[in-house]
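Troubleshooting log. The previous structure file for this entry was overwritten by mistake, so regenerating from the original sequence record. Sequence copied from the archived sheet and checked twice against the printout by T.R.
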Amino acid sequence: MKFLTPGGDAHRTTARLHADLRLPGREPLTARMVTLDDGRRLLQYRLPFSAQGDNAAYGALERQVGAGVAIERRYGSEGFGEVFTRLAGFDLEAAEPYVLYRAPDGEPVAGRRGSLAVAEQQKLLAQLVLAVRLLEEAGLVHREITPDTVRWDGTHVRLAEPYAAQRIGEPRESFGAAPWAPPEQREGTGTADTRDDLWAVGRLVYFLLSGRPGPAAEVPHDLGEFRRLAALGDSGLFDPRAANRPGPSDLMRLLRVPDPLAAAAPADPLGAARAEFDAQRAKKREEPGTAEPPQEAYEYPVPRRSWRFWLPRGSGTAGPGPADPPPPPAPLPPAERPTLCPYCLLPVEYDETRLFTLDSKRVFQPLDLSRERRPMHRQDALRQAYQSCPHAPADAPHHLPVPFLTNGEPLTVALVGSSAAGKTHLLAAMLGEIEKGGLEPYGLKCLPLNPDTHREFIRERVQRLHRGKMLESTGQMSFAHFADGLLVTGGGVTRPVLFFDLAGEDLAQNGEVTSFLMGVGAFIFVLDPLRALRLPALDPIRAKTGFQQRELGDEAFTTVLNRVPRTGPWIEAPAAVAVNKSDLIRFDPSVDRWLSRGTADLDEEALLAESRDAYAFVAHHGSASWLKPFDDCARCTLHFVAATGAQVRGDVYPHGIRPRRVLTPLLSVFAMSGLLPGARWREVGT
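Regenerated output below.
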């Protein structure tokens, strides 16, 4: 048996596996005791072969491991951490993914109602509130504190493993049974709150003292009969609404229970790197020409979610101040710019005499629409047509989709990174999420730029990836063809978007194939943790894949950044750094904080906080060379993403793929490019 410890160390041992145990209400997971060769007895929960296609069950197991790791890393060396069932290890890439816990002591308190001594009552209540306080500090809500999941050995409480835990602030998922789960949790309304667990604590103590579960959603009418419960009732602990209950610290003061977290907070290992991020942002704003980017914006209606991204208060100052950001200037109409060919970077206008179409053998054939008088047939033909570029040499022609020339200002987006960094998988995951309507919550509608090209990309890339198949690496080419394109409409404005995905070998050299980079509208730099980070937990994967950690950064990053035009010291094209394969590092608190969140909850504060955390994480665990895009680009954000969310075996992903936050970098560059409704692009990434 091999597994990772909560600290990320690989452990291999022999083990004796015992018979399976039933887990009522926890299906499809199964449980069994495991005896390691050193004599330790652990409790294993695993996802059996029969449930391998259950993505929800795998995701729940993964969240359970994330919560257990967070608790163990925060409190593993503290004595008071014994109020939790302790995580011993996990392997989510095993044929049957599993998690291991120390076998808990004590018996469920369900059998102790009405029989606890006064001293035991006081201890149990104090330790339950302490456990909730510790969970609050770790950013977690347990959600399953019941008579069957809380153990008591006469001295210590043991909360069950956090198999139902959610992060504080996440939308509540409907879970739990009355009266132990509060009404809002059972209904799945609002966001997860640490006071949800305090409702459960109050109900559990009432049950132990009175011998009755009590009403499902009301204050028990007989609290006054129990001296210890009366004061809790006065505090609001039994109120059906979380907002009216006290917090854990307030309850601890009421109970006169010492708070072990009241002392100075532990040192932040990423503190210096976060300060470096703040200093670099301030420097960008102080440089001439960067405090006030060009006053050019599209006017869009504000969508349901806020995309008024964070701007340091006091434009041109070294950092945020007490004043509110200045109001934006009145929007100006977009400048009338000629459409540039993305390949030769010369102006191109729509010319019906240069139309072509692709035949069944993918060969360009001339298209003559001069005699077509049916408007709908003509429109359909133009959607699928191409126009030859008049500036291309006769021996090397290139063609542009007609919608690229007949809509708004085009945006070209280039994915940059070394070979096998995951650019192709990330682009496929992005377009897969877009196919499922992932941009619609932000007021964007998408159509294919060219139906045939888009259909081929979806079939050969997106669908293959979603079937759990690894995609082939992008081959080197003599001409930089775009991978796919979209017509993106927001706020009544439609603009073409082209995506370029070149081989890392092509990006790392100053050849003709990359000359188009000088006119690219936005960049997504794809950072590979296996190459960038010194984390020992990545060494076993590096050994399997042959990747090596590099101190000098990504060669493709450097070559591209050195080639792109600059205004003064900065590259004006907006950029985002996507820390791809973040599932490999997902249990680090700085990563898990973001990777466990959906894209849809992104707002201006979250964008800044994620960029700050991602910058600090890379700077702390890697070298500054990997952050060159942020250093060189006037507007740049950073994001934790996972194109597949799983490790490949051979050429397949045995547990399927689970893309994470793959649209976040794209939404960021859309906002900076004026393409996102409700976003003032000049305020993003600076």
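The CA atoms of residues 530 and 549 lie 6 Å apart. Archived copy saved in two places this time.
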